[in-house]
Amino acid sequence: MVNFLVFGPPGSGKGTQSVQLAERFNLVHLSTGDMLRDEIGAATDLGERVKSIMAAGELVPDDIVIAMIASRIDSRGDAAGFIFDGFPRTCDQAMALDRMLADRSALINLMLVLEVEHEELVRRLLSRAEVSGRADDANREVIERRIEVYMEKTEPVAQYYRKLKKYRAINGMGDISDIFERLSVAVKEFI
Ligand code: AP5
Fold this sequence. Notes:
Layout: E1 2-7, H1 14-25, E2 28-31, H2 32-41, H3 45-55, H4 62-75, E3 81-85, H5 91-102, E4 110-115, H6 118-132, H7 140-163, E5 167-171, H8 176-188
The structure holds BIS(adenosine)-5'-pentaphosphate.
């Protein structure tokens, strides 16, 4: 089993690139953001609980996302590997993920960190706001808050994997297809 983290701030292209990587390398794509939006869309109790947190650009509690990921990993025991998108976002989530994978004699092979300039992140998310209907894209203030939360709470996760020598910075500026090729070169080292 080979497992990758696609990491980076809001708007860096994690979702866009993860979907394509999963398809090209026959991996299972797990996005906690998509799972949470599905819960909101289905108006479940969990969805109701997280709706306002997400709309404000804050992080959903660790126990919720860890349980979601654990159940997806369990249900896809046959997978050749996973692409984790938007998870882990805190060091506690990272340690929980490492334990989950260790229980299956697996590990994170590489963290791919998309590097994108701040103004480009904001530009992409404001542009998506015109069509997505995502509450957390609605205005510049909430977008800036998401980026701030990333810097405060999520960026330390990169340092966690850097210490484990699993960190790989990828230039996330430019054409989607060019970025995809950069990511693919890194993934191919492990497949
Ligand atoms: P999540 O869904 O993970 O969103 P995010 O990290 O804020 O990131 P985005 O989906 O906005 O951006 P992305 O990096 O995936 O880029 P994308 O490919 O979409 O999380 C949302 C919320 O859920 C969190 O704020 C939190 O509340 C909660 N949550 C989720 N996971 C959690 C966790 N583990 N713990 C706690 N809470 C959690 O691209 C963005 C836009 O740019 C798109 O329109 C795309 O078409 C465009 N684009 C992409 N690449 C390019 C390019 N190269 N050039 C031009 N445009 C591009």
